[in-house]
Amino acid sequence: MNKILGYIFGSLFHFFFFLFLCIFHPIQWICYRVFGYKAHKISVDILNFFLNNCNFLLFNSLTFTNQQNLPLNQPILFVSNHQSMYDIPGLIWNLRQYHPKFISKIELTKGIPSISFNLKYGGGANIDRKDSKQAVAELIKLGRRMKENNWSALIFAEGTRAKDGQLKSFHVGGIATLLKAVPNALVVPVAIENSWKIVRYGKLPLGVGNAIRWTVLKPVDKTGKNAEEITLEAENTIREKLNQTLTSCV
After folding, report:
1. If you average pLDDT over residues 69-88, what whole number do you get?
2. Residue (of 110, 17, 22, 86) closest to 57 by Cα position
3. pTM of the model
4. Domains in the chain: how many in total?
5. What CATH number should be reported for the domain holding residue 190?
6. Residue 63 β-bridge partners
7. Which residues contact 141 (CB under 8 A, 6 or more apart)?
8. DSSP 8-state assignment for residue 32
9. Which of 23, 96, 203, 216 has the least CB density, counted as fewest CB within 10 Å?
10. What gap in Å lies between CA 249 and CA 58, rounded to an integer?
């Protein structure tokens, strides 16, 4: 029965998700070209509000918890696990006051309405995974923008999506490069739960009736720690949160 609903409501979800992407593409273009960064960011925030709320077409619940008193006048490096592309709208919308910038594959800067435009002009880092020098240079440029504007960056430290929801080991490279460029950045773990269940069967049917959760966790104390130790602590903090939820559900 769930799969039947997944085909019906999943088709509706895809239709409205793509519709919003198409509607906001020219809106983004006008905001950026005519009014500049601030207007463009507002258009991106509103787009992701609608994209995130497309989850209600799948009867998914959405819970974003941030009990941390994070500063607005300091760069922040959010370090998160990654379960599906549907992690992202909730992060952009709910962390909008911190101006989160993403690290993405350069291939995504072409061909996708709204998403490609934002990746290209929104201030993030678009890296070529086959060119390590280009990737490092992009991260350094992002770090400079973070320092100059007190922006945040969000890195999916697993390096790929965990399609079964199982947390993978975190890679240190991107985190180390950004911390070298922005040594005063606050490192804040974010745990994402159950987003993978939306696409557990692929593009269709989509999973319905899931509790999608984002939890901003306590910042990592960087004192006396190198990048490897900071990355491992962020990973363990997220792992502990995911395990707590699994234990409470048993």
Report:
1. 96
2. 17
3. 0.94
4. 1
5. 3.40.1130
6. 213
7. 125
8. I
9. 203
10. 22
